[in-house]
Amino acid sequence: MKINWFPGHMKKTLAEMENNLKKVDLAIYILDSRAPISCINPEIDRIVSSKPLLYVLSKSDLSDPKATAKFIQKFKAEGKNIISLNLSSTGAKLELVASINEILKEKKQRLESKSISPILKVMIIGVPNTGKSTLINNLSAVKKATTGDKAGVTKHTQWVKVSDSLALLDTPGTLWPNMKDEMIALKLAFVGSIKDDVLDTTELGFELIKFLMKDHLEILKQRFPSVDFDCEPIEVYDQIAKSRGCIFKGGEVDYDRLGKAVLLDFRSGRMGKITLDRID
Ligand SMILES: Nc1nc2c(ncn2[C@@H]2O[C@H](COP(=O)(O)OP(=O)(O)OP(=O)(O)O)[C@@H](O)[C@H]2O)c(=O)[nH]1
Ligand SMILES: [Mg+2]
Asked: What ligand is nearest to the CA atom of residue 56?
């Protein structure tokens, strides 16, 4: 399945990121904890390599906690700042503020010693749908950024002042041109970081089931106890259609509905806490 999505607004956003870099003290790089390695955008890496970075593994409520702990350990061993959060939870705010203050402690102290009240400027970056705007709303007293359960919700870069001492730059999610690694592109599509409109969701749902049969068979068995997994993936897919009620009146499988149903099952966490990227 060939996947590529690099519309003009992403190219523009990457250029704006580069332009704003000098103005910001820190970049918060959000990676979906269900696929943190696949969410690493080589274009973003190139742009932000000189800046202090805080990695946030988002959607920790949807991923395998053991895998998340291993990713955190790996990043920390590489000297990186990293936390994992459910960005939709109220508790995330305290942890975020503490991490930002810790990383920018020296800068704050330096300015305060000159009696300047610092306004820390932080740029929020990452591939689409990872929770950038949700993070901003979590830190604001009122909802200031538009969020949504699909890729490509934020269309423009915008500054949001969340307090007297903190301003955040919301950026549209960005990918990169010519995604050569098909598995990375598929995982990004599974977690909803690639707009469904540019995908064949019927085929994507089938790819997801094939992938889970290889790497997470036990979870699939628990979610679909009536399905016999000891057969070809396409037969498994058809059995799942029966179990999910995606069948036309005449008995044919409604593949359109089936693709959407299995993707929703996975993305909503109904299948269980699954991490797609492996860490050994
Ligand atoms: N379960 C869960 N959902 C989250 C979390 N963070 C964000 N979401 C949901 O994920 C979806 C995408 O969130 P957004 O904040 O719009 O993502 P974004 O990175 O700004 O997306 P773009 O603007 O499209 O790049 C929304 O439905 C959020 O409610 C999280 O930690 N856990
Ligand atoms: Mg957004």
From this structure: 1
- The bound ligand whose nearest atom lies closest to the alpha carbon of 127 is 1
Class of domain 8-170: alpha beta
The reply to whether the predicted model has a pTM over 0.90 is yes
Closest residue by Cα to residue 238 from 273, 226, 2: 226
> Which residue out of 14, 17, 83, 88 has the highest number of ligand 1 atoms within 8 Å of its CB and is therefore the one to mutate?
88
Q: What angle do CA 193, 144, 194 make, to 5 degrees?
A: 10
Determine which residue's CA is closest to atom 2 belonging to ligand 1: 59
State CA 177 to chain mean position distance: 18
Tens digits of pLDDT across the chain (280 residues): 889 999 999 999 999 999 999 999 999 999 999 999 999 999 999 999 999 999 999 999 999 999 999 999 999 999 999 999 999 999 999 999 999 999 999 998 998 888 888 899 999 999 999 999 999 999 998 888 999 999 999 999 999 999 999 999 999 999 999 999 999 999 999 999 999 999 999 999 999 999 999 999 999 999 999 999 999 999 999 999 999 999 999 999 999 999 999 999 999 999 999 999 998 7
CATH of region 200-267 = 1.10.1580.10
List the domain boundaries for the chain.
8-170, 200-267
Q: Which residues contact 205 (CB under 8 A, 6 or more apart)?
A: 237, 258, 259, 260, 261, 262, 263
Does 62 sit in the ligand 1 pocket, CB within 6 Å? yes
- Cα(88) to ligand 2 centroid in Å equals 13
Q: Which atom of ligand 1 is nearest to the CA of 154?
A: 23
